[in-house]
Amino acid sequence: MKNLFYKIYMLGFMALTVFFIYIIWEVTFAHIIEEYYGRERALEIGQIVEQKKHEATKTSFEKIILESDEKIKHYLGYKILEERRIKGHFHHIGFQIGPDKRSYCVDCHGDMPHDHIKELRAFLNMHAFFVGCETCHVKLEGAQKTRVYKWYDRTTGELVESPVKGSAPGAYKAKIIPFERVDGKLQRIDSEDRMAFSREYREKEKSLSQAQKSRAKKLIHKIVSKQPAICEDCHQKEASLLPLADLGYPKERIDSIMSTEVVGMIKNYTKFYMPRMLHPGEELPKVEEKKAVKSEI
Amino acid sequence: MKVSLPYLKSYLLLFLSIPFLIFSSPGSASAADIGNCLLCHKYPGMSRVDEEGKFRLFFINESIFNNGVHAKVKCEGCHTDITEIPHKPAKKVDCLVECHIVEPSSEKKFSHKSVETDLGQSVHGKIDSAGKSKKYANDFPECKDCHDEPLYRPLSFFKKVRPGISEASLGRCRVCHKKDEFIYRFYNHVTTRLHKSRNPINIAEVCARCHNDSQLVERHGLSTKAVFSYGETFHGKAARFLDERIPDCLDCHVNKGESAHQMLSHKNTQASTNDMNRGKICSNIDCHPNASPKLATYNVHAEFNLKQSPAQYFFTVFFIVLTGGTLLPLMGIILLDLIRRFFPNAVIKRRK
Asked: Is B107 left (phi over 0), alpha (psi -120 to 50) or beta?
């Protein structure tokens, strides 16, 4: 027995010695070797990084804000503010939300997909941050229509409880997704089948002919309505598109969303800046044409 | 989980200050959002890609903004071209604009205009002393290259020196002053200015954006990647441990009583880093008052590489080799001895 303990003691001692040998090697010779190669590699990487910096068009919200490596910690004494850094951005961001891993729309259209209407694009992108694309771009009709909307986790894609209470407005880790009725059963619109089809298309896109691509795109966008929902579909007290109370919005938030301030501003925007909003795709008559029309009248 | 002491301290302070932050932060009370801009701009996803393909984020984090030095400045104070809501895409902010705040000592409208003059005459100015544009003028910094929204870093001096607002101090303020919003703002403003407005490591990080860029360093013929070599020093390592008292870049490179915008080239005889004045940096009353001027003659920004400082490089390599060369054989002998003890009768038979 004594001999056994002695052997175990010896083994422990040997393990400790080997561990020390490893540590000493790491901080001495390995350090010199690593530093030598590291310097050469750093120079190469530095050149590549600089080159990439100029080439890259990092315009994805996900890449810049949600997955950015450029983190910064502000040591304020009483607290540490950790946030992502955007070069040249003055105001602090101070929030951390994971990217939307579920949405297959984002794969092709990006997470800032709205850029056609100059004055509206930031508003639409703001909504796209917590409202799934299908919420506005799919209009379910007839038996498919359910008026059921739920929240899904941006990272896992799983359905979750409403994140609205206790979060800053719009800063949710979840997004709203509509449900459709298929064979009498409720089913989320971003079903596994649709996701799989879309992602398979992305994988095989390069090997497809133009005709095949066109057909695949048509199938993917089959559920997309020609005219998306507009601001006033939700920002109205009567028959709002989204059942905000069911989605966990407290009364004061609903009142704010439906308030005169918000609704009035939407009207102003529509009237002054976005007359096309209600008629997307239509060309507006030019100023001269307008004048001509008036004079004709 | 490994938690370093400074972090632990910060977390503890944060935990202790939670009730205070919740119940007594000036927060929304000090908001200058008269135009109700936050109706839209409070949403994090408020963003777009501009015509040049650049990402633009229009989100304002209200709680953070209200703890910054501009909390009392109305949005329109900086974004002067926005005169109505809804508004068209805003122009780039001119930091030198006169805002609605009145500077109390001169009773004139406040402006950062004087900073432009200081910066222009400093080592970071784009124009040289002959009035010509410097080479690689685009490399020289503009306001937002160094500054994001400055945040308050209040101090407490009551009994214990710790960061954060002291409730005891506020009690004294309330004897004479009645508006809490004023008291918080004044306290924050004054105590933030009584120490470094940024932690030394944050200062170093700002300088590193340019001074650690090896291509920029090479382009301008600078002798070192300054922040990297600062990180190699005792001061740099202490800064990593969030020591507030440790000198950062500005402590040595800016003359006492002047601002970072007045930093001069070491070739300028007025510069604190000029050979004639370097001795005074270390021996100043706040650092090493009894130090000999010779203390400042050592190579502060040594990178210990072969090209820049061969003596230090070989000295370092020698000691590394000496340490490894001594300890590794010693450990090897101990290991062999242990193996012998483990297998006392083992014999390696020689081939005949």
From this structure: left
Strand partners, A54: none
**Chosen from A66, A126, A167, A176 to mutate, greatest number of chain B CBs within 10 A:** A126
User: For residues A169 and B42, what is the distance between their CA atoms, to the nearest angstrom?
Assistant: 7
Which candidate in B316, B331, B334, B337 is best for mutational testing of the A interface (most A CBs within 10 A)? B331
pLDDT in tens, B10-32: 444 444 444 433 333 433 444 56
Interface residue of B57, B63, B78, B305 to substitute, partner A, most A CBs within 10 Å? B57
Tell me the pLDDT tens digit for each residue of B260-318.
Answer: 999 999 999 999 999 999 999 999 888 999 999 888 888 888 887 777 778 878 888 89
Closest C-alpha to B153, from B202, B100, B113, B114 = B202
Residue of chain B with shortest Cα separation from A32:
B317
Cα–Cα distance for residue pair B318/A32, rounded to 1 Å: 11
- Break chain B into its structural domains and give their ranges: 310-344
B-chain residues near A272 (CB < 8 A): 86
CB nearest B323 (choices: A13, A28, A64): A28
Amino acid identity of A242? Answer: L
Report yes or no: A130 at the B interface, CB cutoff 8 Å.
yes
DSSP labels, A150-219: EEEETTT--EE----TTS-TT--SEEEEEEEEETTEEEESS-HHHHHHHHHHHHHGGGS-HHHHHHHHHH
- Residue A235's identity, in one-letter code, is H
Taking CB atoms and an 8 Å cutoff, what residues of chain B touch A43? 214
ipTM of the complex: 0.77
Contact B64 A81 (CB under 8 A): yes
A43, A75, A95 member nearest B199 (Cβ): A75
Which of B43, B86, B320 has the CB atom closest to A268's CB atom?
B86
Tell me, what's the pLDDT at B158? 83
